[in-house]
Amino acid sequence: MASTTPAGLQIRPRHMDFDLPNPLPRHWHGGDAFKSHLFDAMSALFPDGERFFIDSVRHFREQIEDPLLKEQIRGFIGQEGHHSREHLEYSQRLRDLGYDIGRIEKRARMRIRFIQKRFSPERLLATTAALEHITAIMADGLLRNPHYMDGAHPALARLWRWHALEETEHKAVAFDVYNQVCGSRFMLRRAMIMATFFFVKDTLQGLAHMLKVDGLLWNWRIWRDGLRWMWGKDGVFRPLLGTYRDFFKGGFHPWQHDNLDLLYSAREEFDGAAQGQANAA
């Protein structure tokens, strides 16, 4: 079997309506500009990034013979498509506040077009697998530590937890497809180095832009407290370093980070609501 997703775990998109506030509170994460805009900057990258993921996996769909993995590819595409839709709405709320989201999106699109013209389909898929690992370990941190969203607007906190749940569910799909059609660990490691650099670069550029619009770019306390929140003793990203490095090990697979119990617990928050919304539609 090509799929290594745990037996019985179905990957299905949830049709959610998060009713994002309009207007969006400028500093929706507890009044903290740095926290709010870090999430905002990542969100602005997701619609184009997720379309790239879909295209990279879809290219190889007909080469996959395992019916289970083919079904999971279908679920992966459905989930990523819904993520893109919700984050597009999120981006519009940010535009309404005066942030130049178009510039952030243009930068991401230009890079995507560049690599799609110059990289092989296998290398594009390796990049997708690498970025899916980054989102998966961040998703695990968010689901495992609900206090990371303390003080956040409830609709935004819920959107990010929903996204984290579905990223966890499909965290191995691109990786499994890659192993079927290529499997080169060297290419995978090289893709991770490049993906990490540009993900961090683009996110920080978006964060800096939004702080500049707010007149807070050169407020050293904002940066001091924000970097401490990310990388300090109890920082939200610091515990992820070990699971990030695991990607470079020979024989690594995303489900070696077994967080099924956490996933099923998070499902309880959303599956009933998603069914209720579907029935009402």
Explain the overall architecture.
The chain is an all-alpha fold and 281 residues long. It has one domain. 68% of the residues lie in helices and 0% in strands. It contains ten helices and no strands. It has helices spanning 33-58, 67-96, 101-118, 121-144, 154-169, 173-181, 185-213, 220-231, 241-245, 260-280. It is globular and about 55 Å long. 35% of the residues are buried.
Structure at a glance:
With 281 residues, the protein is an all-alpha fold. The protein is built from 10 helices and no strands. It has helices at 33-58, 67-96, 101-118, 121-144, 154-169, 173-181, 185-213, 220-231, 241-245, 260-280.
Q: Number of helical segments?
A: 10
Count of distinct structural domains: 1
For the secondary structure, the number of strands is 0
Could you give a short account of the major beta sheet? none
Judged by helices, strands and strand pairing, the structural class is mainly alpha
Shape: globular
Average predicted confidence as pLDDT? 94
Poorly predicted regions are: none
- For the terminal residues, how far apart are their CA atoms? 37 Å
Rg, Cα atoms, Å? 18 Å
**Strand content bin:** under 5%
Helix content: 55-70%
Q: How do the SSEs run, as a string of H and E? A: HHHHHHHHHH
Describe how the helices and strands are arranged.
Blueprint: H1 33-58, H2 67-96, H3 101-118, H4 121-144, H5 154-169, H6 173-181, H7 185-213, H8 220-231, H9 241-245, H10 260-280
Helix pairs in contact: 1-2, 1-3, 1-4, 1-7, 2-6, 4-5, 4-6, 4-7, 5-10
